[in-house]
User: What shape does this take?
Amino acid sequence: MKRYTEWKLPVLVSAGLAFGLISCSLSPGDIPPNDVVPTPEQLEYQRMEFIGFVHFTVNTFTDKEWGFGDESPGIFDPTEFDADQWASVAAEAGMKELILTAKHHDGFCLWPSRFTEHSVRHSPWKEGSGDIVGDFVSACRRYGVKVGLYLSPWDRNHADYGRPEYLEYYRNQMRELLSDYGEITELWFDGANGGSGYYGGANETRWIDRETYYEWQETWAMVKSLQSGTLLFSDAGPDIRWIGNERGYAAETNWSMINTDKIVVGGADHAYLNSGDPEGRKWTVPLCNTSIRPGWFYHADQDDQVKSPQELLNVYYRSVGRNGVLLLNIPPDQRGLFHERDVEVLREFRRILDETFAENLAASKPVVADTQWRRHPKFAPSNLVDDDLDSYWAAGENARGANLEIDLGDAVFFDRIMLQEPIRFGQRISEFEIQARVNGEWISIVHGTTIGYKRLLRIPEIEADRIRILILESNNVPALSNFGLFRASKAKMGQ
Ligand code: FUL
Assistant: This one.
């Protein structure tokens, strides 16, 4: 019989070998996530980056921005309505979703709702047999564009608005839209609420208590019980939050987190929404909405006030480039078509973006970092320049800062910088600096705060052969998924 000491050593050695083999072949896992992280649906939504808004209703025919609610359905008669034109233009412009005003504040319904007579059913369009929402949904599906719907909580037509019965009506409509039109990616809840209106002929002013009237928690739970994947937008989220202004601008410091408990839909602090809250307990995707024209609805006298491609680029860099999603409104005209001018501007805007971001001048260049999570190759700094959003570099345990350096080889000209964090683990970085080696000398070119899903920076064109990314402050181990250098001046020059 062997004595314990005789067999202990070989057993320990082989156990150690086996453990070594297993741990080498085991996946190294991921960095531990922050407490507040996005859901997979929020992540997917953020990755869409650019989506479109379609404001279309009786206002298009009355030349108003807010209908009073007494408009006759008889005026709704687009002569060349073509949802395929909307969806194809949107897809070509790079919009991944379109949101249609199924019902704006005037209460007119673009679908033949079973719960009201105030709809397309009583319009001359297709002799009352049409369904704009239905045609819109089919066109979006044909062009691979996701569907969102705007259902205004305020209804200036409905006799019961302001009473408990209206909430039942409102929820019935929501149920109808979520049951009859397939997958709805987003529902948009606007903050405008209460005031004067037609209200079934009462022609009076009605106010509601924003905090209690819509029983938002129950209403939103009802939506999720019908379609668990539908994302809800309002001032307060819960999934997507308003950026706090209608110019489409996020603040330079923009956290995806906020505290929603004290926010009342329609009564939020705009500055708070504009930059989020590093201490926020709820993840929200910051949504930056604006219109290509001064109005949300089409007005012929604004045909010469369509934003230029350069103005749209400004909005893009201040929304998508500041950790937001851009929601750009294109209002159809009385024909029911996007106006030629808007289409032309959108095409040029897309062309410039595509040319600008066609070539990442840092792609595949050697990158070194002074710290790396568990020194495992899965977290190598080369992940920053591999054009893969899922791979990432992470600093070592307990690190709250890091220095990375990219060797560009020959000096290159650039004027745009892109940084991305792997936000599935939460938003972490709160201060960074970028330095460049120009003619052998290091200069500081950017000092920034948050990064989030995507940060784009515009700088005067420079020529450099090395880049340093200094992460100066982070609420957890810092990580980056992508880094890019681009040259926009090339696109502007049309080369
Ligand atoms: C606002 C509304 O009152 C406007 O009419 C428009 O729909 C805009 C997107 O939201 O609050």
Summary: Residues 1-25 have pLDDT under 50 and may be disordered. The chain has eleven helices and 20 strands.
